[in-house]
Amino acid sequence: MTNNAILNVEGLRTYFHTTDGVVNAVDDVSFELMRGETLGIVGESGSGKSVTNLSVMRLIQSPPGEIVGGNVVFDGIDVLALPIDEVRKIRGKRVAMIFQDPMTSLNPFLKISKQLMEVTQLHLGHTKQQAREHAIKMLELVGISDAEQRIDSYPHEFSGGMRQRVMIAMALSCEPELLIADEPTTALDVTIQAQVLEIIKDLKSSMGTSVILITHDLGVVAGMTDRVIVMYAGKVFEQAPTKELFARPANPYTKGLLKSVPDPAHEQGTELYQIPGLPPDVANLPPGCPFAERCERAEIICHNEFPPFVEINADHHSLCHFAKEVYGE
Fold it and tell me: 28 and 12 in contact (C-beta within 8 Å)?
């Protein structure tokens, strides 16, 4: 683990045991997160992005899920080796997560005040009065007006954007060292998306928090992250500094994702590019590269042999038999 790394994930494997077989949702995933850095994790739905980070948080439901291997080292602590009571002391206080859907993540039967206050009462030892004052302050911090009046509202009384702000306030209440944001802008309109991302950026800057941003929106990745991991079929297909990944991708899958982004410069009526085919069944992966059936560059070796993780340079790696050629194209 690098001295400046706050998180080191090595060889992480999370499987789900189903009636159709074992689903290798996360299969040998490794990455580092530096202090104060924002790391983007991108990929199509089902690529393993969320399961990777739920595994980091020890939030995989068992059964059917099981973390079967690997290490998750947070600030020198092996999270996977800790008793669950010790994990709970870290989770919510030092490591926090903004979940994908604020409507289902917030308890619809409890007032916002109750849900915000219990975080600091549990982790910071606040009295009821201290917790309430802190909760109001956090709501104001994330841009909710009339926080003192609105704190006793129920989740359904807030819009989607406001509920997402409440989730951010809850996640940041204890000033965590690591914030995991899982699709924080999903189902929000463009204006609210920009506001939510700006809040995360500002709070990261003021608190020095390290951030993992899970998204399928490459525009968000371009504007928010320092480095990017591209996932597919439960594996890391490419990782690189953000600017380099956008300028010179070294994996056909990454190139396909980038080509799929709508371009305002295209003429009206231009057909949008889409990667052909569908993601593979991770319970029944082919022997070669999982992307081979959809890859325009695939050769015989791609269908028969699993690709190596090729080093393009010290900070840039790609899971592809022809990574260096793709990088040079």
Answer: yes
